[in-house]
Structure formats: structure tokens, C-alpha cells
Amino acid sequence: MSVNVSIVLYKHKLSEIIPLVETLRKSEAVSQIFLIDNSPTENPEFTSLYVNYSFTGKNIGYGAGHNIAIKQTLEQNISYHLVINPDINFEPEILLKIEDFMNNNSEIGLLMPKIRYPNGEIQYLCKLIPTPFDLIFRRFLPKSWTTKRTEKFELRASGYNRMLEVPYLSGCFMFLKTEAIRRVGLFDERFFMYPEDIDLSRRIHRNYKTIYYPNVEVVHFHEQSSYLNLKMLIIHSVNMIKYFNKWGWIFDRNRRKINKNTLKQLTSKIG
Question: Which of 53, 56, 205, 266 is the most buried (most CB within 10 A)?
């Protein structure tokens, strides 16, 4: 058992978490399961799951919540750490398959499987390093104006049916090599929510391969909350501003180089 798993909660009910915890328990790869509860009030019911339950007392953010568990993984010298959303469903055996693949490919620091909606449609979560237009401005424009750029940003031309090295992989399922985290650092806690996975992905990408691995699949019951209410839209925008303040708005040479190499890889595979 060489994989620790962390799940960050916010106002979740016990019934919403039980299916994922039971799935994780069935996997021979999983060592410890950490529930980090960012809810305003503690829920003692979660202790009945016999997991490592931590109540933070306030909403400290997605990345900061996972960092609590990742620090313990680092201390325990566990080989891998899985960051996962509560609304994920999969067959337990896929974790052993991922672990085996990672063990045989030591240059990989981060892996994400194929992710589908409950209706079977693919979620396009393999992305280039974003520009301000990709994350902020395009959401205020008609979809018809941005379709072509979005398809390029989400690497849709790949068909999502082959393994790719991708610089930005979604935070809903991040299978992390602990050695990579030890080298590049934890989630940046300046980001309360949203760009923390972009930031960590690109930091790992500088030193390791960051791989989309479609040989295994998970289901994600995904809701884009920032599109659904004004408060979350504001949180989204503020954190994206912090992200671009860190990495650069217009002048981000690293972004340009990474995206060029990613698209070149994609073109060669299609060709």
C-alpha cells in the first residue's frame, strides 16, 4: 500500500462521501485516506468512516486543505499521493494500474486518467498553460466567438484517446509522485480556489513528465460553480488575477515555450 489519498470537504453530507471512501478502501494500493473538512461546523459523523479526519475550523481553501494531508504523506515517505474530488467514481483496481504504470515510468511526476461525465461524454481537462483570455476574458464573450480557441486550449484535436504529456491537468484527480512534491513544493496557498492545479501542474512539468493516461477512466459529477453564481465568479476572477500576477500576464516566456512544445507533440502524434 503506497498511496495516500486526500479529499477536501465543504458542507458535504456523510452520504455524499461514503461511496468514494468505500471505493478507496477496496483498493490494495491505498494506505491512508484523509478527509480535510473546511466546513464552518464540524461533522462528527465522518469519524465513523475510520479515516484520518481533520476539521480546519474555516474554509482555508482547496490547495491548503490538501496540503495538510500531503505534508503527512511526505513525513511518512509514502510513494504516491492522490488528490481527488469528493464527486469522483471509479473501479478500485484502476489505482493499482496507475501505480504500476508510475513505478515503471519514473520520470512521471503527475498523472491524470480519462475523465468522463456520468452520461459517458469526455471531460476536456487536458489543457495548455492558459493566457488571461483563456481563464478570464473569454467567459464574458459569446461562446460562438471563442469555440475555436477553446478547442485548441483543451487539446481536443488529440481525440483524448492516446497518452499525452500535458502541462495543465485538472485538480479533480491528481495522482502525484511524492518525490515530485518534495522537489517542487506543495500547493501554493495564495490561491484560495481554481488556479492551484494549474500552478502545481506547471511546476511539476518543469522537472517531470505530467501525463494524461487514458488507459483507465473515472467519472466526475462536475459542476462549474463559478458559472452558476456571482460569488463564485468573483472568487474565480480574484484568484486568476493572483495567478497571472505570479506567472505573468502578457510576458510569460515559459508559457509560450511549453504550449508550443505541447502542440508540436500533438501534431506529430496525429501525423
Answer: 205
